[in-house]
Design a protein that fits this description.
It comes from Muricoccus roseus. One of its GO terms (biological process) is signal transduction. Belongs to the peptidase S41A family. The chain has three domains: 52 residues, no CATH class; 87 residues, PDZ domain (Pdz3 Domain), CATH 2.30.42; 263 residues, 2-enoyl-CoA Hydratase, Chain A, domain 1, CATH 3.90.226. The longest helix has 21 residues. The protein is globular and about 75 Å long. By secondary structure, the protein is an alpha+beta fold. A hairpin with a 6-residue loop joins strand 13 and strand 14. The strands form four sheets. Strands 3, 4, 5, 6, 7 and 8 form a six-stranded antiparallel beta sheet that branches. It has a six-stranded mixed beta sheet with strand order 10-11-12-15-16-19, with helices on both faces.
Amino acid sequence: MRDPAGVSSKPRFRLRALASVAAAFTAGAIAGPVVTAWAQDGSRAETYRLLNLFGDVFERVRAEYVEPVNDREVIENAINGMLQGLDPHSSYMNLRNFRDMQVQTRGEFGGLGIEVSQEAGYVKVISPIDETPAARAGVKPGDLITHINEKTTQGLTLQEAVEQMRGERGTSIRLTIRREGTATPIELSLTRETIRPQVVRARLEGNDIAYIRLTSFNEQTEVGLRRALSNLRSQAGSNGLKGIVLDLRNNPGGLLDQAIQVSDDFLDQGEIVSTRARRPEDAQRWNARGGDISAGLPVVVLVNAGSASASEIVAGALQDHRRAIVMGVKSFGKGSVQTVMPLPGNGAIRLTTARYYTPSGRSIQATGIQPDIEVLAQREDAQQNRERDREADLNRALRNDSSATGANARPPAPLPPLNLPAGVVQAVQRLPAEGAPAFDPTKPETDHQLQQALGLLRNMAAGQPQRRASR
């Protein structure tokens, strides 16, 4: 999070007359770095006229709305509307929501345990968090939450809907869900809990493969990854580990620095990720330091349509360096960076400030990470003719700028070949066998994607070592 120049110097926004609106915004423009933006939207006089329009509407709402309005709420709604009109990930957070976000990044928050976005006016589930009220109730990625406590979510901002779903531990809430393929709405009654998601889950598969699942990227993720791998190495004993499955399926992302550290854990050198902002001089790049915590063990990264943001940074970095084989289906495609900018005494704004790029120069925005080996979770997926639950489907999603030209453009480099032992890829089954048991999260043997990853790693161990390409 960073406090941009000019934010703290803006005066409090008070509207007593139309002239005060222009004065307040003028002070902010002079104090902050956005002075160069005036020319882009027309003359300064036109900007003043638009600010007067805003002030006129605000005064009419205060004077003539059917019920008295709260000035702060009206202005906060206007700010949020301005930000949400830019893209699906920019928004305003009041003080309470800002504190909630800070708590979440520390790895603890109160509520139901679901990551959500907004689509067609409804709240859309990106992913339920493991072992939370939402996950136990059967909430699934792609579900639309149409009602909260029998009140429609249409007309609510995403922040308002999230705020309604949060609450004190032990209090109950009713959700109405619309799910594709289900004719009638699903009614769920849940009890709120203090959510302390276990962001790292690990176990040995067959005494020779380390399975590590990352459910999100908060301040505990990289430390938990190191601890998990150390424990599994000890459990494997003298036989040792043959490989690692890093499961990022339905991981909605989180902190950028944690994604960088997790990637760095498996890389000895080279670029991990870069960001490009509006101004070329604001571009940033992060490189790996020496030291691979796995000592070169082969890695398979599992991704699906619920793998987003920080998950895609990790998958993209390891894929580009051929440090891991990415398996599953195409990821969500959120390739934008949000900077949280505190507004002293008034919460913060979450503003999209850059796009991020994999080491080869690929922008994942609205396209996602394409797996090296496509493996579907169930046979029904092959019969679906359209893609769902991805960034490109969201209203006002940023375009992918891979084809852009100019000083700030860099064409992506082709990826090196996989160079796997003969027959290894051909042994992977894209679809589960006909009549295979339905997926049960408590039974790893029903997880087709996981089983194919395990088979790939064991076949690699039986063949020649993978030749890693450097970048």
